[in-house]
Every structure is written in structure tokens, then in C-alpha cells.
Design a protein that fits this description.
This protein is α+β, with helices and mostly antiparallel strands. It is built from three helices and six strands. It has helices at about 10-20, 75-80, 105-115, and strands spanning about 35-40, 45-50, 55-70, 85, 90-95, 100-105. Strands 1, 2, 3, 4, 5 and 6 form a six-stranded antiparallel beta sheet that branches. Helix 2 packs across helix 3.
Amino acid sequence: MKLDELTIGEAKQLAALFASGTAQTVHPAVGKYVVIRTYSAGIHAGVLAAANGKEVTLTDSRRIWSWTGALSCSEIAMHGITGGKFGVAVDIQYITEAIEIIPARAEAEKCLRNFK
């Protein structure tokens, strides 16, 4: 993260972290489009707004119910998918029990955001 390139949202997150008197580490994927695998709530794709241990907040988030064209979450994040079922995008989603956070490549992000 480059301080000169912070978005307003990122600056607010930093201010909130220091306001409590105890700084927390900001996850390196905050602000990036990611694929999340959870313990019991499936696979999600969206922009990582915050991460604190196993709790994550996604914006512009979609649940991936099923997919074809990728063997694993890693492949989904690298290349996208060729078919499957997606839930509707939600503005913000709070997820507990996240066990993987995988930043998506640009080609995968385009595929996942535009998948019908």
C-alpha cells in the first residue's frame, strides 16, 4: 500500500485502526478483487474491504454456487470460470470463517464480475 495513493475508504480504515489506540495489520489484499473460500458458507468473489482473522468484509460480493472450467478456488482466481451458477451481487457482505483469501488476476476478475 502506497500512502500517496490511498483511497478515502482506505484512509478511513487506517484512521479507525489507530483511533482505538491499538494498531492492527491491514491485510495486503484490502482493496483488491478476491476469491474467498469459507469453512461453511461456500465460495465468494468481491472486493476485500477488511480482514480480521477469519472475519472478512467484501463489497460488490457474489456467491459462487457452482462452477465449471476450474478445478479449485486458486484456478477461479487465476483464470475465472466457463460456466456455473452465481448469486446476485450484494453491496456489502460480512463473512465469518474465511479460510482462504486469493487475489484475482485481471482476467478472472473480468470474468467473475460479468458472469451472468
